[in-house]
Amino acid sequence: MNVDNGILRSLGACLMLGLALPVYAESALEYFTREGRYQGPSLEDQVALMDSDHNGFADVFEVRAYLEKQHGKGYEKALLDKWESSASGKSCGTPFAKQLYGTSAQ
Q: Are 66 and 49 in contact (CB under 8 A)?
């Protein structure tokens, strides 16, 4: 059976991260860096974890749900409220916002 070593390393790294980062590691970035190259989960892996409707991207609502699951309810509330307001078209008071977003501009 021929298995790609990169896949095994990534799987091993994810499993190790899931168990716990070693106490001596100064940061997760350093933990996942080997020979000057990042070996941890890719951006694509992270987006796939957030993409709950499996449409290929994570919108702000999915990002919020993921972050709150990881860090607790209310994590970065002010920032995520602002992003959700923009995504819902509620932050733009111009007359054309209603046409763009299909909602009433406030």
A: yes
* Contact of 92 with 103, CB cutoff 8 Å: no
pLDDT in tens, 48-102: 999 999 998 888 899 999 999 989 999 999 999 988 888 776 666 666 655 555 5
* Dist CA 26 CA 94 (whole Å): 48
Report DSSP letters for 27-53, one per residue: -HHHHTEETTEE-S--HHHHHHHH-TT
Q: Two tokens at 92? A: 């733009």
Tell me the three state secondary structure of residue 92: coil
Is-contact 16 28, C-beta < 8 A?
no
Torsional sign, CA 43, 44, 48, 54: positive
Exposure class string for 15-33: b at 16+ Cβ within 10 A, else e: eeeeeeeeeeeeeeeebbe
